[in-house]
């Protein structure tokens, strides 16, 4: 079997196995296949957000403590004519940039998940209120 034939066969098999399942809020599904198997709760989101915040604070404290020493060492090595001075500075600059990126990502994760928990709670409150109002309206109609 040639590569093209094998590729066509693999694509056909993959296309044949593609399907879509939409899960309803009650756990059932329109296709009758089954209930949703993935659920994330507010405490789960909050825990992940808290871990991201802890990592942020820990890393913020420890990531940059060698900066001043690295700067003086690289300057001293450069002054003495060693090319490792600029290489040391480049390594430090790369570390600093990547550390700042990690700190930014941790802050973003924490803030996003905290906002998600708050937004979800507010949304639930609106739904409960709307449902309660519809039940009141039903009894007065």
Your description of this structure?
The chain is mostly helical. 74% of the residues lie in helices and 0% in strands. The protein has helices spanning 3-16, 42-62, 67-79, 84-140. α2 (42-62) packs antiparallel against α4 (84-140) and α3 (67-79) runs antiparallel to α4. It is flat, with a radius of gyration of 28 Å. The N and C termini lie far apart (72 Å).
Question: How is this structure best summarized?
Answer:
The protein has 141 residues and is mainly alpha-helical.
Give the percentage of residues in beta strands.
under 5%
Compute the gyration radius: what is it? 28 Å
Average of per-residue pLDDT values: 78
- How far apart are the first and last residues' alpha carbons, in Å? 72 Å
Largest sheet: none
Topology summary:
Layout: H1 3-16, H2 42-62, H3 67-79, H4 84-140
Helix pairs in contact: 2-4, 3-4
């Amino acid at each position: 079997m040639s590569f093209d034939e094998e590729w066509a066969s693999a694509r056909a098999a993959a296309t044949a196995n593609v399907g879509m399942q939409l899960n309803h809020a009650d756990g059932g599904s329109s296709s009758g296949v089954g209930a949703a198997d993935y659920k994330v709760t507010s405490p789960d989101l909050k825990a992940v957000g808290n871990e991201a915040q802890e990592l942020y604070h820990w890393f913020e404290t420890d990531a940059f403590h060698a900066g001043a020493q690295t700067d003086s060492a690289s300057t001293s090595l450069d002054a003495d004519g060693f090319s490792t001075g600029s290489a040391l500075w480049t390594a430090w600059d790369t570390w600093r940039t990547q550390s700042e990126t990690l700190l930014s990502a941790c802050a973003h994760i924490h803030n996003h998940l905290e906002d998600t928990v708050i937004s979800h709670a507010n949304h639930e409150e609106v739904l409960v209120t709307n449902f309660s109002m519809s039940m009141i309206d039903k009894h007065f109609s």
